């Protein structure tokens, strides 16, 4: 067994691999780029080496050699399924902790993968089986299969370039779009066309194969809860498979692994119909999957728990698997959710910022790649962590997951945390009625701003003022001193911040924090005064409003913006105090201020110049992050001024880009 392993990755998977290395007494070597110099995966390693980029294979191999690493674990993403990199690792005399490069190549191209596993009896989706089809041939194959059909790039995954075509009239445009997207994402516009399975479920099988001919499967994972072909929730086992179906799908996965000479940990993905009465091979992922923890939580081998990374290490070291299929049992149920830096209320746009406060649940497994102080940007995948729970039944695992999400707090960065709680509470999700289109059919998330959150923000401000004012002198009292009268109420005008939208709301608090009244609302919509009190309990704010007690995590960002972040029960809100003069200017009909970046990213195009006259809806600036483009358009007819955006420049969330001054008379 090697004693030192370089982890060719970052984030939560690098931290997770380091834990297993340390548990086995091995040295963990990290690599990092300049933005990640202080990242958690660097702190988790014994030694870390700077590299220019996580895709620079030559630099990563040299980093390993320079510090005496004997093996390389690629994790997932980046170079994990790059056969050329695997060969470079082996040529450098290091052990590649992954499948043979030939197996990576065979499964990396969808057309070649189907040609490899088909003769082994693995069920294939009816569709084209040749490469290099021109547009006419793709169209002919689609018509022969019958609509609906799925167009998909041969060279890549992740849902990029996939198009479902339901009628002949849309076919030509869909082929052109799929080729264009495939070429842009993978540099290869080769297309496959397959029968589209309606209401499909996505079920995958984890396999392990050693170098001595033993191949086993470790049951299935249900991954049907997806958004834009990206997985959001995974569970093991599937809620729909029975023992017979599990055996059939497991055997098909084993045969697929044998057909390509697989060695190591891999995942064979299948698409099934609603009741899993038929299933078809999709692809094989020749690496560790993001969702591997749910398999670890339910698989028992002769009574012992499974660690897939440890199994990868043993197999790469040449050790045989010391068990066979009959030794493997599935016990209980596990569910995992992916915590993303994204804003559900804004179409799931990527977000960013500095993690100011972080609380993970105590009764759950958390694989995280962030810590307090971590800068979340747009350079890498927006997944911050995975939260996993298990239980004796599916219902118990989901209940524990809901409790875990309620106990989680991430402040400083907008995430999908609250939306995840809503998702797993959905009736269809709870009943196991899953398919890959379910999330897309759910109502669009909406932002809310409950009264208790507004009251908590005001009371937190009141406590801060009390801390600063200190003494009992009349002019130090919050709200001011008035002759012969009680102090005036402390007033705040609060507005959603950090990318959230909404109108300003006035909040007035009369009396000390330990026993006051609060009035929430603006003008004629102001409510009646309500009893309220607040106190600090360590890092939490305990608020009692109308006799109901709630606990908040509260933190205020530094800098001029002064955004106050509040979190409770999985919900997160960001508020700032609006200057009353600014609010008056806006209400009076003046300029609404600059248009700002809708997400952290890179300005890819600036299509106007200062002084240009523009019309409402005209494109002004394009911002890109995580291969997602967002166009900033003119809100009204007017003149461009204060153009801060520059093509190629990185921008933060809410960074000013450009101002459009309305034309006189508009």
CATH top level label of the largest domain: Alpha Beta
Shape: globular
The residue-averaged pLDDT reads 90
The end-to-end distance, rounded to whole angstroms, is 75 Å
What fold name goes in the CATH topology slot of the largest domain? D-amino Acid Aminotransferase, Chain A, domain 1
Q: Percent of residues in helical segments?
A: 25-40%
Radius of gyration from CA coordinates = 28 Å
Instruction: Return residue spans where pLDDT drops below 50 for at least 5 consecutive residues.
Output: 471-478, 480-485, 581-591
Q: At the fourth CATH level, what is the homologous superfamily of the largest domain?
A: ATP-grasp fold, B domain
- Count of separate structural domains: 5
Q: How large is the share of residues in beta strands?
A: 25-35%
Helix count, per DSSP?
Answer: 17
Q: Indicate the multimeric state.
A: single chain
The name of the CATH architecture of the largest domain is 2-Layer Sandwich
Number of strands: 41
Structure description:
The protein has 666 residues and is of the alpha+beta class. The protein has five domains: 4-97, Rossmann fold; 127-195, Dna Ligase, domain 1 (2-Layer Sandwich), CATH 3.30.1490; 201-441, ATP-grasp fold, B domain (D-amino Acid Aminotransferase, Chain A, domain 1, 2-Layer Sandwich); 451-581, Glycoprotein, Type 4 Pilin (2-Layer Sandwich), CATH 3.30.700; 592-662, RNA polymerase II/Efflux pump adaptor protein, barrel-sandwich hybrid domain (OB fold (Dihydrolipoamide Acetyltransferase, E2P)), CATH 2.40.50. Helix content is 25%, strand content 31%. It contains 17 helices and 41 strands. An eight-stranded antiparallel beta sheet has the order 13-12-9-10-11-17-24-22. The chain has an eight-stranded antiparallel β-barrel with strand order 26-27-28-29-30-31-32-33. Helix 4 (83-91) runs antiparallel to helix 5 (101-108). It is globular. Mean pLDDT is 90; it is low at 471-478, 480-485 and 581-591.
